Amino acid sequence: VFFYANGALDFLIFEPLARGYRFMTPEPARHALSRAFDNLALPIIFANDLLQLRFHHAATTLSRFAINSTGGVLGLFDVAAELGLQPHDTDFGQTLYAYGVGDGVYLVLPLFGPTTARDAAGLGVDSLFDPRTWLLGSSERLALYTGEGVVRREELIDAVNYLTENAESNYNAVRAWTFQQRNTELHQ
Q1: How far apart, in whole angstroms, are the C-alpha atoms of residue 63 and residue 143?
Q2: How confident is the model at residue 94, as a pLDDT?
Q3: Which label site among 161, 165, 180, 185 has the fewest CB atoms less than 10 Å from its CB?
């Protein structure tokens, strides 16, 4: 039910917003905004690096955040990568995986989409690591998360179109893609 409800919301709201954003925003600006949202996620990545005892990654993440938040103008530019500090991604679902927690059942969460039980729990914990959760008011957070949602949905326009045009069953294709994508992320 949530899969098709999310699909309807995507078709009626999120995809048109993402297409409008793509049409109105030059590609370099779209990339800059994507980098800025990536930068805002670095405190979450840092916390999970520490929990996974990956101290070199944690030092890199902290350095990237400091450099890109200042010299990179709030993350619009990835100055840290130019200095050799390459980005990586991690979350609390990956932290749980590192401690041996299995996937659990496949879920489709309202608005958040497909995930597993482990990663759904990770979403909740990651929100506690996110400074936006405790530094911003609810309306500012909603505006910021909505903006990030549009930016992220724009990045997926072509992939989603390909999937919906070529899959026999959208539900099964998304489920398989979710597990494949997550498996790739877990083994990096």
Answers
A1: 27
A2: 97
A3: 165
DSSP H helical ranges for 112-137: 117-129, 131-135
Give the dihedral sign, CA 79/83/85/86.
positive
Residue 46 has pLDDT above 90, yes or no: yes
- Given the structure tokens 């909740």, which residue do they identify? 124
